[in-house]
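Hi support team,

I've been running sequence recovery on a batch of backbones for a student project. Most finish fine, but this one hangs at about 90% for roughly twenty minutes before it completes. I'm not sure whether the input is malformed or the queue is just slow. I've pasted the structure tokens below so you can try to reproduce it. Let me know if you need the job ID as well.

Thanks,
M.K.
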């Protein structure tokens, strides 16, 4: 089950229901980071799938944009922005992002939603063939990882090192599949660059 930043929730209650951004902790379905000597062929795939999830979509990226922070230790630390212009609603379930020409950065597609059956899903596919180079790379081996998918003005959705063993985990590929949720959010939300949203 998902864990919440209870302190933030308590402060919100004490201040009469004023909402503050919280950290929602989720299991990584997959995190794949691919290196290549040709930087235009580098790739990151990040997915979350949690059945019967207590997670909720908090925030509106069509108004405030979103960010993805990826950290591999060792391996690097990089923030990616997804401006409002690429976002659209998925009915009332959540939101999707598209930038097929990679004009706004490395994120080609992304989405966040919760299905009527209670399945919480996050997806992000990043490629280095556009305007932004992917600089976070496999650490050969990487000991720990963390991600923070944050909706501007809303919550952060954090995945990270759990019980799964990454394989491969070398200088070319870092891949973890079906991990458990982390105990805490080890990666902060990215700061929004001026004018990005």
């Amino acid at each position: 089950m998902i864990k919440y930043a209870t302190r933030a929730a308590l402060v919100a209650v004490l201040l009469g229901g004023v909402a503050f951004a919280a950290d929602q902790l989720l299991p990584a379905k997959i995190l794949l980071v691919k290196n290549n000597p040709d930087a235009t062929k580098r790739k990151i795939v990040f997915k979350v799938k949690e059945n019967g999830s207590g997670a909720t979509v908090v925030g509106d990226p069509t108004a405030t944009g979103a960010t993805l922070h990826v950290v591999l230790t060792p391996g690097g630390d990089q923030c990616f922005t997804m401006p409002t212009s690429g976002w659209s609603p998925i009915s009332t379930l959540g939101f999707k992002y598209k930038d097929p020409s990679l004009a706004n950065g490395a994120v080609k597609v992304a989405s966040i939603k919760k299905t009527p059956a209670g399945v919480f899903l996050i997806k992000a596919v990043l490629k280095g063939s556009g305007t932004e180079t992917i600089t976070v790379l496999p650490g050969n081996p990487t000991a720990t990882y963390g991600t923070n998918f944050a909706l501007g003005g809303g919550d952060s959705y954090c995945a990270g090192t759990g019980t799964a063993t990454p394989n491969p985990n070398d200088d070319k590929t870092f891949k973890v599949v079906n991990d458990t949720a982390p105990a805490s959010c080890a990666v902060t939300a990215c700061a929004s660059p001026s004018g990005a949203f």
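--
Follow-up from support: It reproduced on our side and the slowdown came from queue contention, not your input. The CA atoms of residues 5 and 23 lie 5 Å apart. No action needed from you.
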